């Protein structure tokens, strides 16, 4: 492995003139089990870097815990062909988790695998407290700065990124993963650990914007979420409900605002 999250694999390039043996650098993808107080709760396919951030962020955005202080310990342990991330959480939160326990057998980027009811899948999203206006120039600056900080994707072109930008568009933290939801959970965990999610900040992502992405951005307290690709209808409804701006197709000097357009200023 050349870097955490990257592996070397043999390949063969075929052209009209013949073939060529190669050794390619590709994104690593492994099964990651999230184990709470000794009980396995979720298995997701993920890139095996920043897994403590992933576990912390998943726990917060999925409302398994209400605050970072309710996570007492996180250990990352290779087990067989996968990795277990073992968390110790407050007894009260564990009791709540057991009440609504589900099985998540994750595929790449699968955000709702194993949810056992429509109510669980379509849960309401609390409104963000005091979201602030976001300048168009800040969104464009943050999105333009993402590629340079995508160290894994720059090598293999296979990972998504989620970044937190301050009000002026400065990228404070960026996380990568083969799954777009995982990247955003890793970002949420990193911000919970560092305390860098200041008011007026926003999320930028290198993917389409679905309901789960808006829900996770709202859980972080983002004033907006900006995506390089398209939103879904339910993502737009959720952003309106959460009171955050949803911006998509941020590219080539243009962007489209689908929710809370009044929050995006010149």
Your description of this structure?
- This protein is α/β, with parallel strands linked by helices and 266 residues long.
- Helix content is 30%, strand content 35%.
- The chain has helices at residues 51-61, 91-99, 118-121, 136-149, 151-156, 180-194, 211-220, 233-242; strands spanning 6-15, 18-27, 30-36, 39-46, 71-79, 82-89, 104-105, 134-135, 160-165, 171-177, 202-205, 224-227, 245-251, 254-259, 264-265.
- Strands 10-9-11-12-13-14 form a 6-stranded mixed β-sheet, with helices on both faces.
- A hairpin with a 5-residue loop joins strand 9 (160-165) and strand 10.
- The protein is globular.
- 42% of the residues are buried.
Compact description:
The chain is 30% helix and 35% strand. The protein is of the alpha/beta class.
List keywords for this structure.
single chain; 266 residues; alpha/beta; five-stranded mixed beta sheet; 35% strand; globular
Distance N terminus to C terminus? 45 Å
Major β-sheet strand ordering: 10-9-11-12-13-14
Largest sheet: 6 strands, mixed
Query: Which regions have little confidence, pLDDT < 50, spanning 5+ residues?
Result: 102-109, 111-117
Percent of residues in helices: 25-40%
Number of distinct beta strands:
15
Q: Please trace the helix and strand order, writing H or E for each element.
A: EEEEHEEHEHEHHEEHEHEHEEE
The fraction of residues assigned to DSSP E strands is 25-35%
Determine Rg (CA atoms, Å). 19 Å
Q: Can you tell me the overall shape? A: globular
């Amino acid at each position: 492995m050349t870097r955490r999250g990257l592996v070397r694999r043999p390949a063969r390039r075929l052209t009209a003139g013949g073939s060529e043996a190669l050794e390619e650098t590709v994104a690593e993808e492994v099964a990651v089990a999230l184990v709470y107080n000794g009980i396995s709760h979720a298995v997701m396919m993920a890139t095996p870097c920043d897994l403590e951030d992933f576990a912390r962020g998943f726990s917060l955005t999925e409302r398994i815990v209400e605050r970072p202080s309710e996570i007492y310990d996180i250990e990352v342990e290779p087990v067989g062909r996968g990795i277990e991330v073992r968390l110790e959480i407050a007894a009260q939160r564990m009791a709540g988790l057991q009440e609504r326990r589900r099985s998540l057998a994750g595929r790449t980027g699968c955000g709702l695998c194993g949810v056992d009811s429509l109510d669980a899948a379509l849960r309401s999203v609390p409104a963000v407290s005091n979201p602030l206006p976001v300048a168009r120039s800040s969104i464009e600056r943050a999105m333009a700065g993402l590629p340079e900080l995508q160290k894994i994707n720059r090598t293999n072109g296979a990972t998504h990124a989620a970044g937190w930008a301050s009000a002026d568009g400065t990228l404070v933290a960026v996380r990568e993963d083969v799954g777009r939801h995982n990247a955003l959970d890793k970002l949420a965990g990193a911000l919970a650990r560092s305390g860098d999610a200041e008011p007026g900040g926003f999320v930028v992502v290198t993917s389409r914007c679905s309901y789960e992405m808006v829900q996770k951005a709202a859980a972080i307290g983002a004033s907006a979420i900006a995506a390089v690709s398209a939103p879904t209808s339910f993502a737009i409804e959720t952003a309106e409900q959460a009171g955050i701006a949803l911006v998509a197709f941020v590219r080539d000097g243009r962007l489209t605002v689908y929710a809370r357009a009044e929050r995006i200023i010149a």
